[in-house]
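Troubleshooting: if your tokenizer reports a length mismatch, compare against these two reference records.
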Amino acid sequence: MNKIRVRLADWQKDNADIRRIREAVFIAEQSVPPELEWDSDDHDAVHFLALEGDYPVGTARLLSDGTIGRVSVLKDWRGLKVGDALMQAVIDEAQKRNFQQQMLSAQVHATPFYERLGFKVVSEEFLEAGIPHVDMVRTSCKAD
């Protein structure tokens, strides 16, 4: 396996790759209705692509309020630290933009992954697209 790298993505230029990954993960695997997967936030979000070589294998987005979402890694690349690299890039970008908090809604099964990255559960469990989720928050440490 090649080294995984993460880069900022352009919603227009990288749209096919972002859609391919999110459709495979959320729509095909998890049965999220397409009308819930695609929203107007995509046009203004900062998008990220995780690549093995030149092949995009994961994606995520960062909204202008510090909300991280649509974190997805293709099945064959899970367990290979792609999610870690992707999330670290998103957190770094959020800090660069001076977001003191990063927020996300995590699928319950993924909470240990996000907790390892410094996120804390801040809500009761709820259903989103029929999948159990919890809200999580990470506070950036600011040097004094």
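Reference record two:
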Amino acid sequence: MNLVKKVSFYLFFCMMLMVSAAWASVDKPGEGVTVRPARATWNTGFFQEALVRKGLEALGYKVNRPKDLQNPIFYKSLALGDVDYWTNGWFPMHDSQMPKNFYEVAGLYGYIVKSGGMQGYLVSKRDVEKYNIKSLDDFKREEVKKAFDKNGDGKADLTACPPGWGCEQVIRHHLDVYGLRDSINPVKASYEAGMASALGAYRAGEPIFFYTWAPNWTIFKLKPGRDVMWINVPKIIPLKGQASSVDRMIESGVAGAVTDPVKLGFVVSDIRIAANKKFMDKNPAARKFFEVFTLPLEDINAQNTQMNGGEKSQKAIERHATEWIAKNIIQWNKWLDQARDAAK
């Protein structure tokens, strides 16, 4: 090869490397950046963590294994810059668990599920109709107490929360302020065992009355509007910690509610990504992905049902996420393209 050809080949080779590098930087704008996520301690939130992590990895980021943290510890860690984000923010429920300077150094991005963090009481639909049940107050009626009394103590049995759960405190408050101690017996054993028993009772044609939250497998197996109905509390009497969010305790457009709006008695939250502002400012691709990524509540409930059926290992959760991406590949690629465009 003569000198001219050698130089031409070298220039062509260099040009190809430059084009390749430019293309790689566009296709994977996160290349070279290590991300430090956290994850909530409840496994019903693991699915969205896996999906968002896979999205960042597709954008070229190296994403560390998430740290499992309790809510207040996470928000403090995020404010200190020890972690970069998590997908398990419930707002306004988590407002009281955040450090005072949180919004100076961190923020909320996108809506994984708007109004997706719901809690409340549900009753078998056939018994809602049979006994005309609209609220907890109806459990003061003798025929209703008798119908839902499983142990013969003269009270309606409610599948409630185990001791120590935040919802247990709210249920205890409701029984007190609505004068229901003599009407409702909160069963506080293992929640999974209690709901398995309730599901069996429903299939046997018996009345059921339970507390639950969304996302959760319970309302995938027992669908509101078809199998069960959300019922009201008599009136909104908040706990001290709920006082600033009274308007989020009444929700309109809830599928399977006995009234519209329905007075749930628990704060309805948006499930959002909380992230450190410095990380967001330096990573526009990640920021855009956080802003556009959403999940149908029904899909989370379905995945939670798979976990409840035994598929709860990390390997199984990763597979669930991969399968979800494959089923929604057009939308998934659109989100990735939007993130890449934001980084240009």
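Descriptive notes for reference record two:
- The mean pLDDT is 92.
- The chain is about 45% helix and 20% strand.
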